[in-house]
Amino acid sequence: MWVLASKTLSSVTFPFLYNPIPNRHSSSSKLKLNSSVKFEYETERGLDFETGESFFRHESATGRDLGVLAAALYKKSKARLRILDGLCGCGIRSLRYLVEAEADFVLANDANDDCRDVICRNLSKVPRGSDDEPREFFDLIDIDSFGSDSSFLRPAINALRFDGLLYLTSTDGYSSGGHRPHHSLAAYGAYVRPLPYSNEIGLRMLIGGAVREASVLGLRVVPLFSYYSYHGPVFRVMLRVNRGKLSDNSHYSFVSYCHQCGNSQTFSWDELGQISCSCGNSKSIVISGPLWTGPLHDASYLTEMLNLAKEWGWASGDTETALEKLLKQMVDESDPRLPFGYIKLDEVASRAKVNSPPLRTMMDAIQKEGYAVSRSHIISNAIKTNCPMAECIRIAKELQPRAYAEVL
């Protein structure tokens, strides 16, 4: 597995073993370096580190928070944690996995040899253990890649222990938006057309690519959480990998959107010749896929993450933190009654020819009609609901006088 990791992910490897550090959430001391050399430090969750010339974004801290929480839960349940941090940049994820998740071993890799010194300085905060080459499978593999390079998927799955975690990344907003369908087909095996919920499609496209690669190896993947961030954009998914083949009722299928009525549907492979829309205008339908059309999150797993975040002080009972709000929204999105995609209230208002109603008012009205509904963590002015578009339009029209009064 060492050869696999070093050959496919990097030409530079930095293995470190974790030794416990007291007070995991306190700020770590700065490195004692030659006083004639000046180093600027960043701080994340109390840990000081350098970025050097590596690519680094403060906005990606939430994705790192989620990865650390998942890693810590794995360590708690399995009593072990071996991590491969592929494309590690300056090494901040590796440092956080070692200190906060108490990883037993982290292999930090980056193909850019210029990052060697800054990675070594950042990880020197942690006492270094044996330099023996890793000969075991990894429990968690974190690949924070750029664009839509999916060539690492199969090697990463091969290097992962059964029941292990695979944390994947895509930053290809053009493909998820349907602007490069042949590119998405080559990278993820999905021909993607423009859809109004393109940012969710980006997550489903990435999961679908992993589903396809895992199935070739006789394995199956299940999403534990899926996270979208507007900067980049960045699509991150945490998957659990186990033995098992795709079932006949798997969630690896096709999605349709009707431009005339605004409804979306899923179609299995054996339904491809029967695609139609209830509005009767089949010419206005666009099809994308195959994609992952099942749940984006596991509610019970997210609840464990939220509880751990509270235990660590990352979620406050007095003032709701951004991470706490995100995890709660993801739990709400996990309602099994909710279909794929989201509905922008601006689209509902445009079709209804009314002003857009307040989001909370619209959600309350939909719930009173007996439908399931939640906010979308992906976009602020959008909802996930099993309420058909025609019903959403009717409700928006009925709410118009009330919505106007609330504005006044």
Automatic annotation (TrEMBL):
One of its GO terms (biological process) is tRNA N2-guanine methylation. Gene3D superfamilies: N2,N2-dimethylguanosine tRNA methyltransferase, C-terminal domain, Vaccinia Virus protein VP39. One of its GO terms (cellular component) is nucleus. The keyword RNA-binding applies. One of its GO terms (molecular function) is tRNA (guanine) methyltransferase activity. It comes from the Eukaryota. The keyword Repressor does not apply. Keywords: Methyltransferase, RNA-binding, S-adenosyl-L-methionine, Transferase, tRNA processing, tRNA-binding. Belongs to the class I-like SAM-binding methyltransferase superfamily. Trm1 family. PANTHER family: N 2 ,N 2 -DIMETHYLGUANOSINE TRNA METHYLTRANSFERASE, TRNA (GUANINE(26)-N(2))-DIMETHYLTRANSFERASE. This is tRNA (guanine(26)-N(2))-dimethyltransferase. It comes from Cannabis sativa (Hemp).
